[in-house]
Amino acid sequence: MGKFKIFGLDGISYFEIKKNLDVLRYWKRLTDRFQLTLLWTDVENKHRPWKFDSAMLWTTMFTGKLPDEHGIWGYKEGIDGRFMRREDVKATFVWERSGAKFLVWHVPALVPPLSWRCEGLVPTDRVVPELEEWSGYVGKLLNSPIDYDVFISVFTGSDHFQHHNWGADGFLDFYDNVARHLLKHIGEHDDVLVVSDHGFTDIDTSLAHMWTWEPSKRVNRDTGHHAPWGICATNLRWRPFKVSEVHEAIVRHLASRGIVLK
Ligand SMILES: [Zn+2]
Predict the structure, then answer these.
(1) Domain hosting residue 80, numbered range
(2) What is the pLDDT of residue 79?
């Protein structure tokens, strides 16, 4: 029997893949097997000038709670206070529940990213934003002797790349390289859920919709910014169509395999 592998891709955008499947050959191969649909970012930030905050969204995806309940609106307290910590999250992450063996690395709900049962094998005290390095550690974990039912890891470098390289040369090559690495980690019998927390658009469209604020353009010099169209690519029978449904999709899939989380 295969494993259940969940790959998060920060900010990978639905329309950029959908419109370019004729040139994105690795995405074509991946989505031929794991059908691609739009994952709508239906959770909005009431406490930040940017509406789709990754800390908030990954926390919702892996706790099943909305930010009013789990309390994470961003990586920092307020706009620029101290970094939030595990004890600030007023909810249980799915891997903290009993019933399934989780192996979790590099989930950017907090800084440093969260991990579970992989200390000593891979870095757990820092962000690993570079694709080859991230993928190398994923391979190391998947080939380690640690037994698991569910593997979870999130690639985060796609967010920074898109903020600064929206529409630039090599944009689609970057996208396809992400899919190429995912394919390396997926076995013939695995069940797979690939999700992103939000999509991207050009900075002016984002500003026009009030999805971010002016300093994103002037101070950060963003050429791209967050938009509410993420992706879902999966073979799961109960497919999430919104960020708020991802946790339920994980729980339902485990239940279909006879695993009930407590
Ligand atoms: Zn971002």
Answers:
(1) 4-159+167-202+226-256
(2) 85
Ligand 1 centroid from CA 227, angstroms: 10
Using the predicted structure, report yes or no on whether residue 135 has a pLDDT greater than 90. Answer: yes
Q: Tell me how far the alpha carbon of residue 261 lies from the centroid of ligand 1, in angstroms.
A: 32
DSSP assignment of 128-155, as one string?
Answer: ---HHHHHHHHHHHHTSS---SEEEEEE
Q: How many domains does the chain have?
A: 1
How far does residue 200's CA lie from ligand 1's centre (Å)? 9
210 Cα to the center of ligand 1, angstroms: 15
Omega of the bond prior to 123 within 30 degrees of 0, cis? Answer: no
- Tell me the CATH number at 123: 3.40.720.10
Instruction: Take residue 10 and report the two structure tokens written for it.
Output: 């920060």
Mean pLDDT along residues 90-107: 98
